[in-house]
Amino acid sequence: QNKIWDVVVSGWLMFRSTNDVKYLGFKTGFFDLLVQSDQVTEYHVDSTCKTNRAGFELFGVVANVYGSGYPIAYLIVKVASNTNVSGEDTGRITALKTFFQEMKDRGFNPTFFFTDKDQAEINAIEAVWPSEGPSIIRLCLWHLKRAIKLKLSKPKTAILPIYNEQAAHLEYDFVDTSFVPVEDARRRNRNLLTTVNQRAIILDMMGKHYNMHHFIPEGHLGISVSELVHQNVVLYDGWAKSGVDNKLPIGKTTMMIEAHWKVLKRTHLYHYNRARLDLVTFVILQHYYKKLKVKYQSMVVYRSETTTFESRFMKEWIKGRGAQVSGTTYSTDLVRLVCGCHSFLHSPVTLCKHLVKAHIAATHDDLVNRKYFIQRPHTPPFISFLPTTNPNTHHPGNHPREGPRPRPSLRRRLSVSRWCNRAARSPLVDEERSFLAHEIRLRDKSANVRRLRELLARAEEEKEDEKSQYMALLTNSNPLQAIPNLDLPT
């Protein structure tokens, strides 16, 4: 506990340790920089496990800055099992509510908050932001499609929901009470909720409704979404209540924070099996955060490389420039930079081939990489082409430079009086380094002398062997010449 406190004392948000729940929340250097900026209003929240030996769950809040994720705060939490009282919030919800409330008190008010299907995160967001909570929550499209696809792929259960046609007619007057489904009647005896083709149609319809917005025209007729809803009342309340009317979010899924966990686990925690909590916190703040800080300064501030959004945008632009356009008109608007085609509705960068062709035909100028600084606003026009400058002036802010931390001394510090008397001496670290260098050189010299002595002794033994063999040969060939005191050549 003390080690964790020493690491995160500068970015501490909250701490609690009881028998029921234990949690620790801390922020990074990106918190004050991005929260105070009006250019960053979209954030992602998610949790991951299997990062430490204590079994704590790690939550993270990541900001979307030009297509890249930069963490602003983390929460380490562990809740004891079977401690929830009926009718009260669980320990996870309580910890998340406290975590979000501490962030809100420090100026954190997101416009869009992406999350997966975690009900604890959704309940905590709605509790901290009661008025705007339902509107700022954006569910991940990938998780939505995956959950519905798995549910529709399961066999029928014994208890099926009872369809009341009268209640449906009271809610929507266009429902025919005498309607009986006859298509695919042979499949009704099978234990399948839907077929493969039906699942594909449902998922496509759900993805279309997820991406629809009144800023985007519908099809080649140019009908807005508000007019479409008025004409066809088929939208469910969850979609109608979700979203901000005057802004269009940049992201569609939570893959940004999923990639954040992937880098943390496979790059920075790869060599630590069942790491301690203090080590996990140290790796996050001292390893991962420092690399992201260098990336932010290099990519966002000094523009040494293009941002993630610019790279994706240029790929889609080049693809649209070489594509063929049919004669169908999709209400392409170069002022608002919107189009009513299917590709624009599902595009992650709000671009299609019709906008590319129309822009080139109107301006007689093609877009070249790094010619402009490309931004994606939340309001029309959805693409901004800003002049490129170095350093970049269109960014949330320059990351404050952190001074070097004091290094611990190798020996105990001297008293003031002894230090005054030894002021002329070299620093203690230099003395220790010089002493270590002399010790290494002396050890190397001693090893060389010992090796040379071993070689000399081996040479003396070989000399005696050769001498004895020579004397034996001389005795066998001419005994008269075998004189005991014969001086042999050396």
Automatic annotation (TrEMBL):
Q: Does the keyword Coiled coil apply?
A: yes
In residue numbers, the region (Disordered) covers 387-411
Domain MULE transposase, first and last residues per copy: 44-145
Q: Which domain of life is it from?
A: Eukaryota
**Keywords associated with the record:** Coiled coil
Asked if the keyword Coiled coil belongs to this entry, the reply reads yes
Residues folding into a coiled coil are 442-476
The name on file for this protein is MULE transposase domain-containing protein
Q: What is the lineage of its organism?
A: Eukaryota, Fungi, Fungi incertae sedis, Mucoromycota, Mucoromycotina
